[in-house]
Design brief:
Shape: globular
CATH superfamily: Lipoprotein localisation LolA/LolB/LppX
Number of domains: 1
CATH topology: outer membrane lipoprotein receptor (LolB), chain A
Structural class: mainly beta
Distance between the termini: 11 Å
Order of helices and strands: HHEEEEEEHHEEEEEE
Length: about 240
Amino acid sequence: MRRVLHITLFIIILTVSFNVSGLSLCANERLDLEAVLDNMDAASMDFESIQADITYTRTIFLLDEEDVSEGTLRYKKPKKLRLEFEPPRNEIDISNGEYFWIYKPEEKQVEKYKLAEGDTTELNFFEFGYEGSVEKAKKNYSIEIVSDPDAEGSEENDTGIYILKLTPRPSAVEMPQYNEIILWVDDGIWLPVRMELYESEGEVINRIELWEIKINEPLDDDIFQFEIPDGVEVIEPL
């Protein structure tokens, strides 16, 4: 399941809305951290669904290895997910909120997992993200606004992006998988459009980028159902 978590652990904090009433910003107006988090928390109240193109990159420095996967994302509350990755990954991950499937057409094989009631193991990026809260993030992480780690200059920029760094608190109830998280938050929709998740003391980086984002457009529930094709082996790991 770990390889699944690397994909599904991605939109990391506090959520999204296409309409943040009364909170529009002037081009040069910059907010402090509390105001940014308040906007994200308010936006989460309106969130129902998202569609986007996705690029997922996993870099392992020790092995000098980098894998890049591209595809599409569709998600609908509560916990309904469809991720389709193009070749060479060629994989479809689907959740209807009750079951989670990982389908690899070339291998003619699908892994099927039963989601226990209240269990978010496979979808916990959404639990922490679209279905999470600012208070939960504050409790488990130290959060700060930082400069772009890939560019010189200050966080005071005119791109409409706030860059947040999340560091796990020693007092966190559960040991976090990532020792650092960086989010690029768009102040038009209050959604992270890029995320970097650092594990193994930074030796492994999971980078997720979203494009062509559509918020709260109707998504039929049939999208999140998986019909097992003829000749495909079903594996149900314990």
